[in-house]
């Protein structure tokens, strides 16, 4: 009878993980097709019922949503619980992650309208301290920063590899002096958070005040976003929201957000109620709900219009249409950190705006979080919302079972090492050593996991803690399988040495 080692099983599961990972990490799932459910405008009660049922069915820890229509908020609601176990509400502070970029872009556009900044002038004209190792960096324009087409990328400058966490935007920009470019400015689109660190520093220098103060005085306060704040660069913190969650093995585990510098690119804390005011402003040509104009309608349209080489990214916003699976053209942006995620969507053809904030972060798939947004959009467009349960807990359960199996098989291999060695006592050393080679595959897979995840994530770098938060069951399996194989190798090697000495 042919027996299979724990490594053989590990290889099979690793291949299975790759099969699951690659299609699951698409930026936004396609919209579900459906038929009209009503000829009347959707009611707030219907939106509320769908959101409440969705959060419970998908096993999400919590979500806060807002829906607007033609300059009015038609529904806000909170569902589930925060990290402290308290009911989540529409006014619960939550991290909005990369939705912050649209706010930084608006601040830059205010300076453009004031004549202090030109989008197509080099950043260096405004920030003489901005310099990178690649001489082409001197040609990077303000527009290219906001459109993520500066040529900078995580491969040329990894935020993970900073010598220390910056305590100011000035320091964050100065740390980029050794950065390279992955492409000439304006030629390729690469999503890179430091683009917006530089943009925030530009706001700080040209605006003549700290970035956090500028945002409060010129963006949040006039927009009526009284419960919204940007992180303090000195500490990297904001008025601390409740802990978000890591989803693992069917559980929602409260966890602290790993420390990282995010000023300008992420880190803003807001509420669903405040974000409703934000999308109203975006849908009403730059005017806040009370009529205050923060920027002109022309500037808003410019931010919403794709100008990057990928044909979809504008200035802090993206576009998607029916060719991408949307029911109608959408202006949107998503955000995701380790313990929180978020979406903001405008549908110009219907006048609706949508916000969804979640206190759970990156996972194998965005299906569970984006499905709530897609369901709300579908209801307003007369389509049936998506149905179905989360597959995340099923994948985690499978990896949990395989982790236990790897542990059992590893223990079995260690306990039987003496008998294994005695049966091979007379064989040449090279033949005995060659039997260990398959057992080196899981350790190698663990060592290569970060690079593999970076590849799947489109080149985005991350720390091991951030990776673990995103795929805890998968990395736990790889770690246990690797340790089990190494333990078997060590036990069998020791047994072989003892057997040969005895002989």
Automatic annotation (TrEMBL):
Signal peptide coordinates = 1-32
Tell me where the transmembrane regions lie.
397-415, 436-457, 477-497
Task: Name the source's superkingdom.
Answer: Bacteria
Domain (Beta-lactamase-related) spans: 47-363
Query: Which spans of this chain does the record mark as coiled coil?
Result: none
Q: Which InterPro entries match?
A: AmpC-like (IPR050491), Beta-lactam-related (IPR001466), Beta-lactam/transpept-like (IPR012338)
Keyword Transmembrane helix present in the record's keywords: the answer is: yes
| Keywords of this entry | Membrane, Signal, Transmembrane, Transmembrane helix
Task: Supply the PANTHER family for this chain.
Answer: BETA-LACTAMASE-RELATED DOMAIN-CONTAINING PROTEIN, D-ALANYL-D-ALANINE-CARBOXYPEPTIDASE/ENDOPEPTIDASE AMPH
Protein name, entry field: Beta-lactamase-related domain-containing protein
Which species is this record about? Nocardiopsis sinuspersici
Source organism phylogeny: Bacteria, Bacillati, Actinomycetota, Actinomycetes, Streptosporangiales
């Amino acid at each position: 009878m042919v027996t299979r080692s724990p490594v053989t099983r590990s290889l099979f599961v690793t291949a299975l993980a790759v099969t699951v990972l690659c299609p699951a990490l698409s930026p936004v799932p396609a919209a579900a097709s459906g038929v009209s459910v009503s000829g009347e405008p959707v009611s707030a009660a219907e939106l509320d019922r769908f959101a409440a049922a969705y959060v419970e069915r998908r096993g999400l820890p919590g979500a806060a949503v807002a829906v607007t229509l033609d300059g009015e908020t038609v529904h806000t609601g909170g569902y589930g619980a925060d990290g402290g176990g308290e009911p989540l509400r529409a006014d619960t502070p939550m991290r909005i992650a990369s939705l912050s970029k649209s706010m930084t872009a608006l601040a830059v556009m205010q300076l453009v309208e004031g004549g202090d900044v030109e989008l197509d002038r080099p950043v260096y004209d405004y920030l003489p301290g901005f310099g990178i190792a690649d001489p082409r960096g001197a040609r990077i324009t303000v527009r290219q920063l906001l459109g993520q087409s500066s040529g900078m990328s995580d491969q040329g400058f990894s935020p993970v590899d900073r010598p220390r966490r910056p305590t100011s935007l000035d320091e964050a920009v100065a740390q980029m002096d050794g950065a390279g470019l992955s492409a000439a400015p304006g030629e390729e689109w690469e999503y890179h958070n430091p683009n917006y660190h530089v943009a925030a520093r530009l706001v700080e220098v040209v605006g003549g005040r700290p970035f956090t103060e500028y945002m409060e005085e010129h963006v949040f306060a006039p927009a009526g976003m009284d419960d919204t704040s940007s992180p303090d660069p000195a500490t990297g913190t904001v008025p601390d929201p409740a802990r978000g969650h890591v989803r693992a093995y069917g559980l929602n585990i409260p966890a602290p957000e790993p420390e990282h510098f995010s000023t300008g690119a992420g880190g803003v804390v807001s509420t669903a109620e405040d974000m409703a005011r934000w999308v109203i402003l975006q849908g009403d040509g730059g005017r806040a709900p009370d009529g205050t104009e923060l920027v002109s309608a022309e500037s808003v349209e410019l931010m919403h219009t794709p100008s990057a080489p990928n044909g979809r990214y504008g200035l802090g916003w993206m576009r998607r249409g029916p060719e991408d699976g949307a029911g109608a053209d959408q202006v949107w942006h998503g955000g995701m950190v380790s313990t929180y995620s978020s979406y903001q969507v405008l549908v110009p053809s219907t006048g609706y705006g949508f916000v969804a904030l979640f206190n759970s972060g990156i996972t194998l798939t965005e299906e569970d979080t984006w499905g709530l947004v897609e369901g709300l959009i579908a209801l307003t467009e007369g389509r049936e919302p998506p149905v179905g349960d989360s597959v995340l807990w099923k994948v985690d359960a499978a990896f949990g079972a395989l982790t236990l199996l790897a542990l059992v098989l590893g223990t079995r291999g260690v306990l039987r090492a003496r008998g294994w060695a005695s049966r091979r006592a007379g064989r040449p050393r090279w033949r005995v050593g060659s039997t260990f080679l398959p057992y080196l595959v899981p350790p190698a897979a663990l060592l290569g996991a970060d690079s593999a995840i970076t590849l799947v994530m489109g080149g985005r770098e991350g720390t091991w803690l951030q990776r673990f938060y995103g795929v805890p069951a998968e990395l736990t399996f790889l770690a246990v399988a690797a340790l089990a194989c190494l333990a078997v190798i060590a036990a069998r090697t020791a047994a072989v040495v003892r057997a040969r000495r005895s002989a």
